[in-house]
Amino acid sequence: MSLKIEDPVERLEGGVITPLRERVNRPDNVAGLLFLLPNLIVFSTFLFGPVLFALWLSFNSWDSLTGEAEWVGLTNYVDVLTPLPWAESWAVLNTPTVNLWWFAVKNTLTYVIGVVPLGILGGLAVALVLDKRIRFRKFYRAAFFMPVMLSGAVSAIIWRWILSVEGVLNTILEPVGLAHNWAGDPGTALFSIMLIAAWGSIGFNMIIFLAGLQNIPRELYEAARIDGTNMWQRFRHVTWPNLQNTYFFVIVLSIIGSFQVFGIAIAFADGGPYYATTVIVVRIYQEAFQNGNMGFASAMAFLLFAVVFVFSFYQYRLRGQGEVTY
Amino acid sequence: MAKSNYEYPGYERSGLAYWSKTIVLYSVVTIAALWTLAPFWWTITTAVSKDPNAGLVLFFPEDATLQQFFRLYERVPIERWFFNSFVFAGTVTLFNLVFDSLAGYAFARLDFLGREKLFLLFIGTMMIPGMVTLIPVFILLSELGWINTYWGLVAPFIANPFGIFLLRQHFLGLPEALGEAGRLDGCNKFQVFYHIYLPLTKPALATLGIFTFMFTWNNFEWPLIIATSEEMFTLPVALFFVRGQFTNNWGLVMAAAVLIVLPPIVAFLSAQKHFIKGMTLSGFKG
After folding, report:
1. What is the ipTM of this complex?
2. What pLDDT, in 10s, does the model give residues B18-62?
């Protein structure tokens, strides 16, 4: 055990009091303002202002036809959240017609719980293989990354064809007797979009993991080899602990992204069949832009914000501390 | 002299352990490669087959034809959609490069009141889910009459906290002495930025530019909302529209998909380094 004696000067450094005049009159006050002016305008118009406006909207009922607002207080939030999921012995979660918000929350959570591990384990597996000296490494890396280049909506439409009744997958599975209406059955539609999302995210996770793997000093592996360890032991005691920052980063990113899934769900089956792929953002989109209830939709958007904020804040701190640098 | 790798235990290039390891590694990548590449292949085979609903082509199409592409070209304004996507992604990228380098430089190298707080406020907006601001921005733009216009398409993306963050990091990595030398030579603060620091930022600008272009090109939800008529669609929304328009005419839909998938894939294969770097730096994907 060692005792660290803090240097009193070092401790004071952050709190040294400088005269107010020096703090306010900094050398580039005018230049700084001019350099930032374009961004101050667009950030205020398209981010700061709209967030406040959305917050205000969520306490109003807004008719998108007339553009008239009426203050309703917390009514939107109450309407979104009731009946609560445990009312009627959890029946709310299984009947979209009772409360579509909770049904969408259930779909989104199922999606997040499926896609995040699938994408991360898949990405880690291929990254571990490509980190070795294998043939055609560059070819494989490019191949795995290709789906990342597509818009989620575009991949969803391609997969919609593969998974359609007379599509490729059924042609392959028919002889084995496993043909199925993958997109048309509420029981398999959500799993289908999870598969599409994993297809699109494995390459991305792979790239981040490869960067993390390359940062592990080779000497550690050499030392482990001299000690006579096997492949699994080297993974468990060298690779895994040294990748800690990387997988925290990837997990948080995947969670944030998955909570906001939209394009895949809309393009695959338009939120259906029977609301099976109605995830939170699809629900918000439909309420705002198809039903025109902007206030009600804003309340839902803020509830989503609250959930995502927990994870985003964590990521923001990782980023802010510069712990994750690539 | 350093020991050769082959002298360590467990590193021989023969024996059961080596071969089973090799087989496992290659099976993992081969299965993964099939699973990632097969959908691309089936998109192509469906697009070039005469009648995709009559018989499915799993491997090679026997009588390949381009007739689906011609039919598509006759029925929908595909060239207009390409143009829209280029205008959308190109304009956003251009604005971002200018605005983000100005702000990134200010946050890295200028000393002004409120710098730290403002920077946190700017990059803090990365935490806001897109759906929160989408609704109010839509209302604002409809007040301005910008729905279904190029301005409406582009405007919300000019604010790009990620680009500012990235370029600030880059400017912080450049030596401060360069700017001081420039000041002594009589440059004003803007000239120091423009003539000394900006030219040194070209690699970072290239990465940010390519990445922003791709990210905007692939954006789906905003064009879906703001483009209300066919001739204002961008490509991802257009594919969604084609799919709705020609339900179950998968040959036609896949012909459109081939055209839409081709540019990003070709771009990626020719500038892999930039895409991968941009992706790694970004830490997000929509």
Report:
1. 0.86
2. 788 888 888 888 888 998 999 999 998 888 887 666 556 677 777
Residue B269 inside a domain? The answer is yes
pLDDT in tens, A142-156: 999 999 989 999 999
Residues in chain B: 286
CB contact, 8 Å: B257 with chain A?
yes
Asked if B283 and A208 come within 8 Å (Cβ–Cβ), the reply is yes
3-state secondary structure of A61: strand
Secondary structure letter of residue B193 according to DSSP: I
Whichever domain contains B137, its CATH number is 1.10.3720.10
pTM of the model: 0.87
> If one looks up domain A80-320 in CATH, what number appears?
1.10.3720.10
Distance from CA of A1 to the nearest CA of B (A): 36
| Residues of chain A neighbouring B250 (CB-CB closer than 8 A) | 161, 164, 167
Beta bridge partners of A63: A68, A293
Say which DSSP state B241 is in: H
Yes or no, beta carbons of A132 and B25 under 8 Å apart: yes
> Would you call B126 an interface residue with chain A, using a CB distance cutoff of 8 Å?
yes
* pLDDT at site A4: 44
Distance CA B279, CA B212 (A): 10
Cβ-based neighbour number of residue A97 at 10 Å: 8
Residue B139 identity: I
Best CA proximity match to B217, nearest among B265, B274, B250, B256: B265
pLDDT at B54: 54
